[in-house]
């Protein structure tokens, strides 16, 4: 018999096509009458659709969200928010935009409605990573958890195939690490396996036709499931490495996840054979690590840290940082082991 403790985080989830039209109702449900609309510079179309849906409820807009939630951007947005007297946050965009909304909620306690346009899953987690003076600090707090998530598949149709692949693998990483997490339970196991299977089947369909609504819906559902896993159980070596590479070397978030994940699967395989078998089954391949590497390569995704701009000289330092503090992982994490893993990832070797 399995013994477990499961803590879930509350979230109201509205899912479908054309669901932005329900934003007005969702904002009013939270008591909002004066909305600050938060988005990123490249999201004109999505921001326009949300603005149109909200009409007069929008009293101000901030379009400056950036990756890793820099403190100075949050300060700028806070000024706009207080000058406008906003009483509710609505954000539309990827994990970077959701991060800014969470940072604002942390400081103002305003309710949030988040409209995700990538597969990062941040919208359902109580986690916020912020950067100040070049250092990334991550915290977990119920105060940053969005009250309502409105998934509108239509807003994801414009996500380029390359970003869809890397963001999809970012979601898959949450699911993979949930399966061998020290806190895994039967609910997260099922969510994780469903997410992996949905992503593996939907990505080739999106690559063939980025406007395939059903495939997009599968990816968005998988993002929600995998994000819920990330919110519920602790992560391991993969997330630690990606956090280190993003924080210390400024490597791009989803792309780094995409390169690293097959190598972490290979590293952990000897210590978690049953989990690897279930992942391989969900991916419908004989071996989890090489099967995932082949999937990414077939979709034109990045396969080496070198192509992400990481200098080879950074490998030893990154390995040192990744082992500096102990954390749970199925296989013992050693500096030599991680250095070897990062070297393979740097060269883009296919994991065996
Ligand atoms: P992102 O939000 O930076 O988006 C990537 C790019 O895609 C941006 O240029 C964006 O403008 C563009 N884009 C987004 N949606 C689009 C769409 N529908 N059509 C066209 N272009 C679109 O990247 P991301 O990978 O979603 O998020 C990364 C950030 O999220 C990082 O800061 C990471 O730390 C954070 N994150 C946090 C959590 C958490 O639980 N706290 C989880 C995952 C990621």
**Whole-number count of domains:** 2
| Molecular shape | globular
The CATH class of the largest domain turns out to be Mainly Alpha
| Oligomeric category | single chain
- Approximately what portion of the residues adopt beta-strand conformation? 5-15%
Structural class: alpha/beta
Q: How many strands in all? A: 8
What name is given to the CATH topology of the largest domain?
Dehydroquinate synthase-like, alpha domain
CA-to-CA gap between the ends? 34 Å
Radius of gyration: 20 Å
Number of helices: 13
- Helical coverage, percent range: 40-55%
List bound small molecules: nicotinamide-adenine-dinucleotide
Low-confidence stretches: none
Features:
51% helix; 352 residues; 8 strands; binds nicotinamide-adenine-dinucleotide; 13 helices; alpha/beta; 12% strand; six-stranded parallel beta sheet
Report what the structure shows.
The chain has 352 residues and is an alpha/beta fold. It has 2 domains: 12-156, 3-Layer(aba) Sandwich (Rossmann fold); 161-347, Up-down Bundle (Dehydroquinate synthase-like, alpha domain). Helix content is 51%, strand content 12%. It is built from 13 helices and 8 strands. The protein has helices at residues 23-29, 44-54, 71-84, 95-108, 161-179, 186-208, 213-232, 237-249, 253-268, 273-283, 288-298, 314-322, 335-347, and strands spanning 12-16, 35-38, 58-62, 88-93, 112-116, 127-132, 135-140, 148-152. A 6-stranded parallel β-sheet has the order 1-8-5-4-2-3, with helices on both faces. A two-stranded antiparallel sheet has the order 6-7. Helix 4 links the parallel strand 4 and strand 5. The longest helix has 23 residues, at 186-208. The chain starts with 11 loop residues before the first strand and ends in a 5-residue tail after the last helix. The mean pLDDT is 97. The structure holds nicotinamide-adenine-dinucleotide. Nicotinamide-adenine-dinucleotide (NAD) binds next to helix 4, strand 6, helix 5 and helix 9. Residues 40, 42-43, 46, 67-68, 93-97, 99, 117-118, 120-122, 125, 127-129, 155-156, 158-159, 163, 167, 170, 230, 253-254 line the site of nicotinamide-adenine-dinucleotide (NAD).
